[in-house]
Every structure is written in C-alpha cells, then in structure tokens.
Specification:
The chain is α/β, with parallel strands linked by helices. It has ten helices and 14 strands. Bound molecules: N,N-dimethyl-L-histidine.
Length: 321
C-alpha cells in the first residue's frame, strides 16, 4: 500500500465519519489540497484578513527581542517549526539569525514534503549557510520522534493562529504533546489571534470577494474530485458565526434545500434536510488571560506577549518551567 492510497483511505474514512454524525462535520485539515493552498494564499492577502499581515509586522518589529534569549547565549540552538508551510513569516526570524551569525539548525515540520523542499531551497537563497533539517509528517509523529532533541536548547514556533483551528480537546492534547517534547527553559512562540470587535473578526471569515466562501466550498469540491462525490456547490451556503464569549469563530456549509449526495468511494448516499449545516472549521480567538491560563496549565510561563499597537494578534513567547 503506498502513501497516497493510505491518505485517500483516511480522507474517505474521515468524510464517512463526519457526514454520518448527528451534526455533520468535515475536518478543516482537508481544506489544504492544491486548490485550497492557493485559496488560502489569496485569503492571506485580503483586506479583511488582518491576521497574516499583523503577525508579519509583529515578527518584523520584535524579532530581536523574541530571539535574543537564544541568539545571544553563544550556544547553538534548534529552531523547530510546527506547520512551517512556505515559511514566509519564519524567514524574518531566519534572516535575523543569519545576519547575527548565530549558529542554529532549523527543523521545519510539515505534512507536505513538496512544500518543505521549496522552503529549503528558498532559505538557501536568503541565507546560504543555514542548516535545515526538514521533517515531513504529522505533528503527532514529529513530537513523538523529536528529531531535533540533540541536547541543545530549542525554540519551537507554532505561528499563524494555527493552534486556534483545533477543537478544545484536541488543542489541549496537542499542547500536552508539545510540552512533553520540550525541556526546561526551552521556548515556545505561539501565534494567537486575539478577541476584538466581533465585526472585524466575522469580516475576516466572510470577505466581500467570496474567497473564504470558495475556500470552504473547496471541501465539497475536493470530495467530488477525489472521492467521486456529486455535491452541487450552489446548493450550499458559506456561513461563519462568531461567539464573543467563547472566542470561537465557526464556519459552516448550510444545505439550501432537502437533497441527497452520493459519494462513490463510500458507496453511500447522504441525506441533507433543508437548512442542515455541515460544521467545517473553528478559528478560536483568545483573551490575554486565556493565554496566561493555558500556559500555566501546560507547564509554561509567559515571558512576553508581543503584540501590534491595536492588540489584534499576539505572538506569545512561553518558557517551559
Ligand atoms: C490557517 N488558519 C489559521 C486560518 C484561520 O484563520 O483560522 C484558516 C482560515 N480559514 C478561513 N480563513 C482562514
């Protein structure tokens, strides 16, 4: 059995399980196929999607303060990144370390080997002496294997509000694994989108051009493409909601009529009632006290929340205690 077959089977299983549950769900990790990756790139450039440009500015402004604890120690260290992607923001940090002639090894972790290859080539261009040790695989496997664990201090990066895409129980379990994978005094830089005017948050997930709608609908398109589904996309409405109490921005696809959808790979027909939702994504927003409580619960101390002037976003530097 090759890798692709296994992945297709897991996708099919997850779709079966999600569409068979009382509240239909589809896991947001399946947004990111080739088309989804492109749509997400477009989302990051949207005027309403403040997250990426805000975090980029935070890293640019505070790169020295974030890194100097490790960079100024005079010892080599490991820079480990969960979900590295194209590393656009991380390049700011790497460029700084290279300019300062700091000795470090970068361990980008991503499910896509292709993305990692490209990232490695890009990095060699901006910093020829950089040591890169890519790890292709899931967070779970990487955190268990700890390929970076060579006795040197580690700064782990989990940027971009990616943590907010995990539902509460999974999020806490993941943070336990992260905490277990680090040693005392290691650092963790976590990107958190902060609670703010609900209108701004909702607009970021319901942009005027409809790019986020297409991104959400791409889940159904992907099922059509890869699993032989017959979803009619115009019969589903993109519907994000934001709850200012929990800080959860949730996205749904709502069936606009009573309908049946057949998925060939599952040999199964799914019934949708009129107005029935499919839950597709959570993007959680945090208060600073939530960040504090979470860090303590998981055995860290917040060293500093690096924020933009409007306090839209925080890159929080935690130290393992
Ligand atoms: C990847 N992640 C942090 C994005 C977010 O904001 O939750 C994914 C996204 N979904 C819709 N727009 C962007």
């Amino acid at each position: 059995m090759n890798h692709t077959t296994t992945y297709d089977q897991i996708f099919a299983q997850d779709v079966l399980q999600g569409l068979s549950s009382p509240l239909k769900t589809l896991p947001s990790k399946y947004f990111y196929d080739e088309k989804g990756d492109k749509l997400f790139q477009a989302i990051m450039a949207l005027p309403e999607y403040y997250l990426t440009r805000t975090e980029y500015a935070i890293l640019e402004t505070y790169k020295a303060q974030i890194l100097d604890r490790f960079a100024k120690s005079g010892k080599p260290f490991n820079l480990v990144e969960l979900g590295a992607g194209n590393g656009l923001k991380t390049k700011i940090l790497i460029q700084y370390l290279c300019d300062q002639k700091v000795e470090f090894t970068y361990f980008p972790i991503d499910i896509s080997g292709y993305v990692l290859k490209e990232l490695e080539e890009d990095l060699k261009e901006i910093c020829p002496q950089v040591k890169v040790h890519p790890i292709t695989g899931t967070y779970r496997h990487a955190l268990k294997d700890r390929e970076w664990d060579n006795g040197s201090p580690t700064l782990m990066l989990f940027l971009g509000s990616n943590y907010g895409n995990f539902l509460e129980e999974d999020a806490k379990e993941l943070l336990d694994r992260i905490s277990d994978s680090l040693r005392i005094n290691d650092g963790l830089l976590m990107g958190f989108d902060l609670k703010k005017d609900p209108e701004l948050i909702l607009a970021a997930y319901n942009d005027a051009q409809g790019v986020t709608r297409d991104f959400n609908l791409n889940l159904l398109e992907r099922i059509n493409r890869e699993l032989g589904g017959n979803f009619e996309l115009n019969k589903f409405k993109h519907w994000p909601i934001y709850d200012p109490v929990s800080g959860e921005c949730k996205s749904f696809l709502v069936s606009m009529e009573e309908q049946q959808v057949f998925i060939e790979a599952l040999h199964k027909t799914f019934q949708f009632t009129h107005a029935e939702p499919i839950f597709t994504e959570v993007s959680k927003k945090y208060g600073l006290h939530d960040i504090d409580a979470l860090s303590q619960e998981k055995g860290f101390k917040v060293e500093k929340n690096f924020m933009d002037d409007e306090a839209f976003f925080s890159d929080s530097l935690w130290v393992k205690s």
